[in-house]
Amino acid sequence: MPNASSLPQVPEAVVCSACGADSRASASCHMCHGAGVGIPTSDGFLVWNTLVDDFTIAIRKLRIKINAALHLLVMVGIIACLAVFLWNVVNHYSLEAVQTVEFWTIGHWFVTVFYLGVVLAAFFIFRLSEFTGQAKYLPHWLRKDENKKPSPANVALDVAPYFSVEAMETVEAAYLLAKELGRIEITPDLLFAAALSGRSGGLFMARLGMRFESVKSDLVRLLLLAPAGKPPITFSREAKRALAASFALADEAHRKHVTAMEIFVQAFLESQKMQDLLDKLGFQAAHVLHVAEWVLLQEKLKEDHERFVALARLKPKTVMNRSMTAVQTSLLDRFSQDLTLMARNGYLMPMIGNEKVMDELMRALEGGLRSVVLVGEAGAGKEAVLEELARRMVEEDVPPILFDKRLVSVNLAQVVAAGDMGLAAERLLAMLQEVGVSGNIVLALYGIEALVGSGSGPMDLAETLASELDKGYCLVVATTTPQAWSQYLERRSLGKKLIKVEVKEADAEQTVHVLMAKAASIEYQNRVFLSYASIEKATQLATRYLHDTAAPQNALMVMREAAVLARKQRGEGTFVSADDVAKIVHDKTNIPVEMVSSEESEKLLNLETRMHGRVVGQDEAVVAVSRAIRRARAELREGKRPIANFLFLGPTGVGKTEMAKTLAEQYFGDDAAMVRLDMSEYQDKSSIARMIGHPGDERGGLLTEAVRKKPFTIVLCDEIEKAHPDILTLFLQVMDDGRLTDGVGRTIDFTNTIVIMTSNAGTGFIQNAVSEGQSMERIKTALLERELKGIFRPEFLNRFDGVIVFKPLTRDEVVQIAWLLVNKTAKMLEDKGIYFRADDVAVEALADAGFDPLFGARPLRRVLQDRLETNLADMLLRKSVQRHDTIVLNADGSLSVEPAPDTLG
Amino acid sequence: MMQRTGALARLVFVDLIGSVVWFPVWWYTTGLKNMIVWCVEGINYRRRQYAIGLWVRNFFVPMYAQYDWGGRLVSIWMRFVVIIGRSLGLVLEGLAYAFLVVCWCVVPPLALVLALQNIIYGTFVQQVPTLR
Question: Please, what are the domains in chain A?
Fold first, then answer.
């Protein structure tokens, strides 16, 4: 049975031990009252023992109406009593007369009416308290901290009175559905279907991205599996179990009542067939349960907010603390923002997850003598931790050292923007002086590394702050990034004064939770609704493809943009889908991350043909590369290595680079999506630094920076055999782990790259072997086992997904290439409105002139330039050709012009 | 069938007639408890708002960071006055809440008794305009 970890665990339902669910004995069973099955808990043996039929449904509705009418009547009675009393007093009695005991006791009829009104008012209070609630409160609704009794009670507890109106309506809807379909048992499937058609069910389906029409026919087929017959309609044992479990789930989650949401979850969990059906339709059980969790989370946030608002009223609105020991801090106020005040006024959101960091921060602060620095990547949630600290300070849910204090965020940029560094230091000291005198301020410094180097000489602002922190009169909670921490702070006195608390990047589960928690505000701002699929997709794609900021910030950004996109494309009130999210990520990265459409799958399956449109010959290479793209697009790769690592071997000018460009065009959508490194420039050991950056140099290396800025790219290393062996060792890690650490300690992600290395090593051997007519397979084996052994280490060669040998081009292939190039020229002319035609013999002559066994097709381009393009340029400049004319490349290599026919006659 | 009768019986006897009988019992059990809880929560909230404990803890800490002798003396005097004032306020509010609880207990039966007294011993019947 699937269960999401964050949903409370519900005890297993059991058959009644007193009657063994024997239908003859169970009607009078003290433990189950005839239900036969239930859940043993400390509050009682939870059973569903309430009859639901047309009569009880009608009575329940009647009861609600009668109660409402009665309350209205009582209220009118109270008002009438009071009105009669006041009217008589005002018209007939003076104030003095009313103040006598005699007036109240002598027996005036209207005074008696007043007394009766008072009794009626008391009765009204009683009725309102006991009869207007939807249902009974669940046992642990308010008593959250109470320890439950360990042993289960052996008394039946009928769960129905705890069901909210909506939950009860769901059960009744299941009954009506069973009646309509001619079933005699209410099964969990029927309960689930009824819950789906309710209000919560609608929200559920929408969040899941499920359309009722798309599941309706399958659902009805499933529902018809329940036993058919004539009424009475009873609850199946599984349905009773599901309803009792709904109570247990709601109680575990400290809900007020059992709602339709719990019925929905438990009916779903109870029915394996329903789970299979939804799974087949594309809704995994885990997703369904995650949506349930989402609803619970939003309920919890609502409750937390109510509590926060009540507590926030106790926090002062001004800079003065409650014990009035503080002073005005005019200078600090100019350069800062009071986070506690912002939290008090409801501007700061609660933090989701990261509880461990919060505990660590509180522990560090509780020591009282040392300040703290939060170290984490941008977007990992350092600000959220500080904002949560501010919220807790508002609630006064903090260690004594933070009690009755305020958290003030200093705008460091504004402080150091003085121009004159002496003035900045003076400002900082004056502000710290105010903090010290006031005594109720904890400073929050975002990006504390800004203080380093801003000052005169070695005594910069960081040193100034460090020396002040030493005096122990103020507490600081700062934030910084790991790079800045290791580069600027760790070894300096300021770093030594701070306790480091790491804020790690959120994992997928945490990110999903953060998105769920923030969903309400995104939905409100954009007036759209988020589906679960969109949240999951945003998490998945952001953690995989967007590395500029850490999770959960990257996922949040994507989600926000996707919400805007959905609103702009489909209007307000629509749902944000996974495709919207994929579109945003695609636009940002140029990577095709959307689901493979049927059109695209057609394209992918015919990729070889399409690639041959650019690459002539080299069938083996084309097949290997096409397969790698298909694997990557179908998401059938580990995700911990580059998409593919290829070694292209072969003579120059046979299409190795062209193949890399074609790959870039096909997979990354642009043949320039390529980081190209000529390895002949990296022949000595010191060139490693050029590649990954000098230690401590923020600018990084050529390779690492290029991939960091553009992680979806082809890394093309030309002439790899010329590189220094240490560089090849560096690539071992890239090819194996998909990452590389640059000079400043940043980990660069290579998992979205395709690494292609080309080499001319063994060219002579390849040419000879091909001319001898050896098979490519044999040539490759010989290369790997013999020819390349002295050049590359075996572990290096083993890292490649494919070692592809490019064979020398034949004359026919060169002619094809010549045609490709000629056509390209024709296309350029066509853009100018001039047509071009070439004679076969002329193109073959060009191919013959441009083919060189040593340089492959490389000289061809030059021949084309000399013999064709130069002449064309002359013709165009001489204006000997008009628009719509056709230029013909004749068999002898000369060019002639065919004027366009005169269409005007 | 039993359950159907039960549902109808519940409507008539529990919701309508039963609630009249249950009302006095509820008033002095669950109702009274709810009332007391409400009062305790109210007084607790006020106690936190006045923060008398915080003022006592900071009794010798000068107000507005006036660390000179004069400032300290004035501060101690002010803290003394404020603590006394707030304590008094808290006590008065506590009394008000206590009065409310007493009212809860006393007012309905008293009103009922007085109404009955008026009806039995007074001139109620004669005075009601429609019954005259």
Answer: 314-502 (3.40.50.300), 508-578 (1.10.8.60), 598-805 (3.40.50.300), 811-898 (1.10.8.60)
Q: What ipTM did this prediction achieve? A: 0.86
Which residue of chain A is at minimal alpha-carbon distance from B53? Answer: A323
**How many CB atoms are located within 10 Å of the residue A818 CB?**
28
Residue A866 DSSP code: I
The DSSP letter of residue A852 is: B
Residues of B within 8 A of A109 (CB-CB) are 118, 123-124, 127-129
**Residue B131 pLDDT:** 47
User: Residue B99 is part of which domain span?
Assistant: 2-131
Cβ B119–A55 below 8 Å, yes or no? no
* CA nearest to A132 within chain B: B15
The pLDDT value given to residue A595: 64
Size of interface A-B (CB pairs under 8 A): 122
Residue A209: how many CB atoms within 10 A of its CB?
Answer: 19
User: Which regions in chain B score pLDDT beneath 50?
Assistant: 131-132
* B117 part of contact set with chain A, CB < 8 Å: yes
Threshold 0.90, pTM exceeds: no
By the CB < 8 Å criterion, does B18 face chain A? Answer: no
Three-class HEC string of B8-70? HHHHHHHHHHHHHHHHHHHHHCHHHHHHHHHHHHHHHHHHHHHCHHHHHHCCCCCHHHCCCHH
User: Could you read off the pLDDT of A742-763 as tens digits, one per residue?
Assistant: 887 778 888 888 899 998 888 8
Report the chain B residue with the minimal C-alpha distance to residue A232: B1
Residue B121 near chain A (CB below 8 Å): yes
Chain A interface includes B61 (CB < 8 A): yes
Q: What is the pLDDT of residues A287-318, one digit of tens each?
A: 888 888 887 788 778 878 888 888 888 888 88
Count of domains forming chain B: 1
CB atoms inside a 10 Å sphere around CB A777: 10
Is A128 within 8 Å of chain B by CB? no
